[in-house]
Amino acid sequence: MISIVIPVFNRKEYTRDCLQSLRNQTNQQYKVIIVDDGSTDGTENMLREEFPEVEILKGSGSLFWTAGVNMGIRHALKQDAQLIMTMNNDVITDKHLLEKMYEWHEKKPAALLGALELDANTKQPIFGGERLNWLLNTIDEVLPTLSEDEQKGLHAVTHLPGRGLLIPRVVFEKIGLFDQDRFPHYIADYDYTHTARRAGFELYVNYDAKLLTYPEESGERQIRSEKNFKNYYKHLFDLKGGGNLRDFTRFTLKNCPKPYIPFHLANGYTRRLFGYFLR
């Protein structure tokens, strides 16, 4: 059985839609653990009234994504969970998501598996994984390289996002939990999957398992939606800023091969300092 860990803070309508989509899964071998980090919009009451099967853990209001996910994972591991999936509440699961995750897990039992992401509004594929080349300091997207007929099965990647990420228990036993001290919110998922890959685990995007997402709802997209000095500061220094310089520095020092660190940092700082105004 897959234990699905979902951290939430308010936005109960997204949580409701996500949980309802899970109820429609063709494979019902799952349980949901919600980590509610101090929601004030009635999320807890909604969960207890409409989704009594969901297990609720309470946070203090200061967990952010990584500590919230870790709380749920610890709880699932204590319950002897063998498969854990991290998921954001602002996604809709395709009804075959878990069925297709189980199918490929049987073939790759120690691999970490992500899902193909579709735009929830257009239903078109928008993200199918990335491959980071440390030497060239480039990130190549997998999806644009594939024909429509090739958009199926597993495709190897170098890292994976935490929304819809299937992680076997053996991974936690070998490398531990997400690094909430260094990466309290953004980039913790990329750091964790890079760490897993260095430890010998394979990473794939499962193109047969699909998630519908809302790209414009990300914190970084909202910061970029109106370009001004306040948002520029958030982009570089806020915990939810996609260009957070501290997180990028920590990520590079922890994961980048040592000979490439100076170039990777210089390139990355340049992109973050100036790229905000170009995109």
How is the secondary structure organized here?
Elements: E1 2-8, H1 12-23, E2 30-36, H2 43-50, E3 55-58, H3 64-78, E4 83-86, E5 91-93, H4 97-107, E6 112-119, E7 125-127, E8 130-133, E9 138-141, E10 154-156, E11 165-168, H5 169-175, H6 188-198, E12 203-213, H7 219-225, H8 229-237, H9 245-255, H10 261-275
Parallel strand pairs: 1-2, 1-4, 2-3, 6-12
Antiparallel strand pairs: 4-11, 5-12, 6-7, 8-9, 10-12
Mind explaining what this structure looks like?
- There is one protein chain.
- The chain is of the alpha/beta class and 279 residues long.
- It folds into two domains: 215 residues, Spore Coat Polysaccharide Biosynthesis Protein SpsA, Chain A (Alpha-Beta Complex), CATH 3.90.550.60; 56 residues, no CATH class.
- Helices cover 38% and strands 22% of the residues.
- It has ten helices and twelve strands.
- The strands form three sheets. Strands 3-2-1-4-11 form a five-stranded mixed β-sheet, with helices on both faces. Strands 5, 6, 7, 10 and 12 form a five-stranded mixed β-sheet that branches.
- Helix 9 packs antiparallel against helix 10.
- The chain is globular and about 50 Å long.
Would you tell me the structural class of the helices and strands? Answer: alpha/beta
The count of strands amounts to: 12
Morphology call? globular
Order of helices and strands: EHEHEHEEHEEEEEEHHEHHHH
Organism: Pontibacter aquaedesilientis
Keywords: Glycosyltransferase, Transferase
Domain Glycosyltransferase 2-like: 3-113
Protein name: Glycosyltransferase family 2 protein
